[in-house]
Amino acid sequence: MFIIKYKKFFVSLSVLLVAGSIAAISAFGLPLGIDFKGGALTEVAYTTERPTVEVLTAEIKTLNFGEAALQPTGDTGYFIKTRALSETEREQLLATISSGTTGTATLKSYTSIGPSVGHELTRKMILAIIFVALAIILFIAYAFRNVTRPVSSWKYGFIAIVTLIHDIMIPIGVFAILARSYGAEVDTLFVVAILTVLGLSISDTIVVFDRIRENIRVTKYATFAETVGHSLKEVITRSINTSATVIMVLLALFFFGPSTTRVFALMMTAGMFFGAYSSIFLASPLLVYVEQWQKGKK
Predict the structure, then answer these.
(1) Which residue(s) pair with 39 in the sheet?
(2) Does residue 298 have a pLDDT over 50?
(3) Taking Cα atoms as reference points, which of 42, 57, 69 lies closest to residue 101?
(4) What is the pLDDT of residues 227-247, one digit of tens each?
(5) Tell me, which fold does domain 39-113 have in CATH?
(6) How far, in Å, CA of 110 to CA of 97, rounded?
(7) What is the edge-to-edge ordering of all strands in the sheet holding 39-46?
(8) What is the pLDDT of residues 168-220, one digit of tens each?
């Protein structure tokens, strides 16, 4: 199959994409939201047409509350993220954004999160990702425990983890660009997106690996590369169709859903697209590379 024939190109493309994501993360960073660093989230709604972000930001700056991030919600509302505010400061904020130049705003909700809670969420996020990765390795090692030739089961698990790193690094790189361009911040939805991408991506990879395992038992192909190529022919349509249907739903959520979930939908779209890509164009070629490397050592 052409994927195996041009495996060097596809693997190189993945390396470039991951390198680009790392560069974006290094250059732009991943700004933490109040879920992780603590602060206040104030939701307001305007009785008439809401002012622009630029006008409202200029008004809030006069209060000297430090950095404030605004996110539109619904047709007339805003989420305003600031440091923790006292009762007096909260009243000052509401009075300022309800001045004659901006229109009348009403307070819908106010949430305050302390730094200790943010640190605990950060710790739990890291632990969740580590435990998911370990569980995936153990599951693949068990599921492919009878595979000993020409590539052993633990190497399937190692390649699966490589593809998972690929699948989460690229959406995180996309998020870093969104953070720079649109002020997106790392919040609980970000963690949900990463964990969901991990689960959906590995399921696609396991389907491909399982087809390769079944065809190895048949042993009707001359080389391992041919076995992998024919296995890809059998599952590529299924993988693309499954991912495409999910991506269509996510794009609908991005274009027609609430503004609060748009970054989440875009991250999930990138994760699903590159998750399907890695299962077909990265994981399988890497298996062939490992097999060829083993033959070269003998």
Answers:
(1) 113
(2) no
(3) 57
(4) 888 888 888 888 888 889 989
(5) Alpha-Beta Plaits (3.30.70)
(6) 15
(7) 69-73, 77-82, 39-46, 105-113
(8) 899 999 889 888 887 778 877 888 888 888 888 888 888 888 888 888 877 66
Q: How far is residue 14's CA from residue 70's CA, in Å, rounded to a whole number?
A: 35
Greater pLDDT, 19 or 139: 19
- The residue type found at 95 is A
Predicted local confidence at residue 12, as pLDDT: 93
More confident: 218 or 167: 167
Q: Which amino acid is at 242?
A: T
Cα-flanking dihedrals φ and ψ of residue 5, to 5°?
-60, -40
Report the predicted TM-score, pTM, of the whole model to 2 decimal places.
0.77
Lookup: tokens for 101 = 């130049």
Query: How crowded is residue 70: how many other Cβ atoms within 10 Å of its Cβ?
Result: 19
Alpha helices in 29-114 (DSSP H): 34-37, 53-61, 87-96
CA distance 30 to 179: 7
What pLDDT is attached to residue 49?
81
- CA gap 197, 169 in Å, rounded: 11
Q: What distance in Å separates the CA atoms of residue 8 and residue 288, rounded to the nearest whole number? A: 11
Backbone phi, then psi, for 78, in 5-degree steps? -140, 145
Cα(214)–Cα(96) distance, integer angstroms: 67
- Note the Cα 16 to chain centre separation in Å: 18
The amino acid sitting at 174 is V
Cα gap 59→99, rounded to integer Å? 9
Rounded to a whole number of angstroms, the CA Rg of the chain reads: 24
Homologous superfamily of 2-34+116-297 in CATH?
A: Multidrug efflux transporter AcrB transmembrane domain (1.20.1640.10)
Beta bridge partners of 44: 78, 107
Contact (Cβ atoms closer than 8 angstroms) between residue 80 and residue 98: no
Domain ranges in the chain are 2-34+116-297, 39-113
